[in-house]
């Protein structure tokens, strides 16, 4: 066997369990449409994946559990064929609550045990059911649970209770790992950390392996489609070194990078909801990288960490995974490790809007635009323009042909120009839709049907300088977007109009709305949901959890997420937590 050959599984210390080296990652429902994780897991199982990676905070365990249950019922797999990894969250760090978190995950996953439980982060939040407990000033409330006597003893309890066979860590640094190894009755067998060609994390990998801990990589491709990507960030998947090796092997750049991880003796967590990419990402066992090729890829290391820690708060080892940062740069040398920024350049993340920084809601479809695509000036999104539908019926057909997604964009204030377009898929395989601003009014299709827009008072016409801001939200059956300049004291509004496939163009509903009980949410003829978020980022994250098949209008402000839904088929909220329900009192 060649010295560069790799096994499809890795033997775990202590139990001897065989962990599949490539895991299907499921981070995170905030960036996915309802049902995407379910479909992705089924596609992954069909493609041969037998390791599924998730976490309590991803909020994907329900869909994963149902997908696995359905495949078992079909007779395609057995539970014992699978290796399931989950992670406990920061508000479950007391000894008793560690076990509670695992039990709740098992209920979601519809299984009596998982194969691996990891401590997601070393930092502890206040105990309770709120994953992100905050004080009156919107600051995270921390706790002082000890990583050994509270967290790790709770993890050992889970093994004793048969809830999991293996336990490990994620995002821990060498000092934290050593402390647990020294005190553990049941030692950690797995460490999951960020690793990719631009952040090889060599010292921490070597340290963990010296402690007989198997190392797994998350974000192995460098998360090229991440929303907070900056135009100056390195992008290994489009680096000429990777591309040239891929061409020589007849493989994709992603496959080369995944193979590079495996030949380092690492496990890999890869995520996509695109069936073709799902299959491609596991098709890496029929070629090898030479020692020279391995070294050239290692030479791409820039100590560039993607998932940043806000060092302004010494107690924090976590920053929300979905964030659209306004970036200031601070030069500082720190140790390369889990809970601390491991780069010589630290980017401080601000959760408020700074007018001076032109980086709000950056969305990057790919590292650079392919030939024939147009790149937006602010966020660098890649667009391809399609002919405008000439009628509502034609628009319906186009919507259906694109799997329910259609963006009809007005580009002139007098409604004289209508175009439709879609974006290229991201490196993760997810289509991203972009909306551009519309200055009120309405437009007519050639068959006489109309889409009407509510008027607004912004103080001035929408800005033409930031066309990407509304593009963060992705919904089914979109007919049109509006955008209002998101700079105080103007209004903060992103609106769209949508219809069910086959329905007539809807009109915005106006009138006086009154609050009703949550359990009445599907009784009224029209319903609007309102969320008061603690920050813009929370608002964007929460807005994306709504199933919007019946949405008529949507408003996203700095503090609220509102939508109005048609009465047809009653609006479906995929996550009612934190939402208030309102009904129309009079038109």
UniProtKB/TrEMBL annotation:
Keywords: NADP, Oxidoreductase. Residues 378-495 form the C-type lectin domain. One of its GO terms (molecular function) is oxidoreductase activity. The keyword Glycoprotein does not apply. Transmembrane segments: none annotated. Pfam families: Aldo_ket_red, Lectin_C. It comes from the Eukaryota. Gene3D superfamilies: Mannose-Binding Protein A, subunit A, NADP-dependent oxidoreductase domain. InterPro entries: AKR, Aldo/ket_reductase_CS, C-type_lectin-like, C-type_lectin-like/link_sf, CTDL_fold, NAD(P)_OxRdtase_dom_sf, NADP_OxRdtase_dom. PROSITE patterns: ALDOKETO_REDUCTASE_1, ALDOKETO_REDUCTASE_2, C_TYPE_LECTIN_2. CDD domains: CLECT (cd00037). Coiled coil: none annotated. The keyword NADP applies. Belongs to the aldo/keto reductase family. This is C-type lectin domain-containing protein. It comes from Pomacea canaliculata (Golden apple snail).
């Amino acid at each position: 066997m060649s010295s560069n050959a790799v096994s499809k599984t890795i033997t775990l210390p202590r139990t001897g369990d065989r962990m599949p080296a490539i895991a299907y990652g499921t981070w995170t429902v905030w960036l996915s449409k309802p049902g995407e994780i379910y479909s992705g897991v089924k596609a992954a199982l069909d493609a041969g994946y037998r390791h599924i990676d998730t976490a309590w905070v991803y909020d994907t365990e329900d869909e994963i559990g149902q997908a696995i249950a359905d495949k078992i019922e079909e007779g395609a797999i057995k539970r014992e064929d699978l290796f399931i990894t989950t992670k406990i969250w920061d508000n479950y760090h007391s000894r008793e609550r560690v076990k509670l978190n695992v039990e709740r995950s098992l209920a979601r996953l519809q299984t009596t045990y998982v194969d691996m439980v990891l401590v997601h982060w070393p930092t502890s939040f206040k105990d309770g059911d709120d994953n992100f407990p905050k004080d009156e000033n919107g600051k995270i409330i921390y706790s002082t649970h000890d990583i050994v006597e509270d967290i790790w003893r709770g993890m050992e309890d889970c093994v004793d209770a048969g809830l999991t066979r293996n336990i490990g860590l994620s995002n821990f640094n060498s000092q934290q790992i050593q402390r647990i190894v020294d005190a553990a009755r049941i030692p950690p067998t797995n460490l999951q950390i960020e690793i990719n060609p631009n952040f090889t994390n060599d010292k921490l990998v070597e340290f963990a392996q010296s402690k007989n801990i198997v190392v797994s990589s998350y974000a192995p491709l460098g998360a090229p489609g991440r929303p907070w990507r900056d135009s100056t960030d390195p992008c290994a998947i489009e680096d000429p070194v990777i591309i040239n090796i891929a061409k020589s092997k007849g493989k994709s750049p992603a496959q080369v990078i995944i193979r590079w991880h495996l030949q380092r003796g690492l496990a890999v967590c890869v995520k996509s909801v695109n069936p073709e990419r799902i299959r491609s990402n596991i098709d890496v066992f029929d070629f090898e990288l030479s020692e020279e090729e391995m070294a050239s890829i290692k030479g791409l290391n820039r100590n560039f960490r993607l998932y940043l820690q806000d060092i302004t708060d010494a107690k924090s080892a976590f920053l929300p995974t979905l964030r659209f940062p306004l970036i200031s740069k601070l030069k500082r040398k720190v140790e390369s490790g889990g809970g601390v920024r491991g780069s010589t350049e630290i980017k401080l993340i601000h959760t408020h809007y700074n007018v001076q920084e032109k980086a709000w809601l950056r969305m990057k479809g790919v590292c650079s635009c392919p030939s024939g695509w147009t790149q937006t000036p602010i966020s660098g999104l890649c667009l391809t323009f399609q002919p405008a539908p000439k009628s509502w019926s034609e628009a319906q057909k186009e919507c259906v042909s694109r799997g329910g997604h259609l963006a009809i964009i007005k580009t002139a204030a007098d409604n004289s120009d209508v175009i439709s377009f879609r974006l290229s898929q991201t490196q993760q395989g997810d289509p991203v839709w972009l909306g551009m601003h519309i200055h009120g009014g309405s437009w007519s299709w050639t068959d006489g049907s109309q889409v009407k827009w509510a008027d607004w008072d912004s103080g001035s016409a929408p800005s033409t300088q930031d066309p990407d801001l509304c593009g963060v939200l992705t919904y089914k059956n979109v007919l049109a977007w509006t955008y209002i300049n998101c700079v105080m004291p103007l209004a903060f509004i992103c609106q769209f109009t949508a219809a069910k496939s086959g329905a007539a163009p809807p009109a915005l509903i106006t009138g006086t709305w009154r609050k009703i009980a949550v359990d009445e949410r599907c009784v009224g003829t029209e319903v609007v949901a309102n969320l008061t978020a603690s920050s813009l980022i929370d608002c964007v994250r929460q807005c994306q959890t709504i199933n919007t098949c019946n949405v008529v209008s949507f408003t996203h402000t700095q503090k609220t997420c509102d939508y109005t839904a048609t009465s047809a088929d009653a609006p479906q909220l995929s996550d009612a937590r934190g939402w208030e329900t309102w009904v129309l009192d009079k038109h």
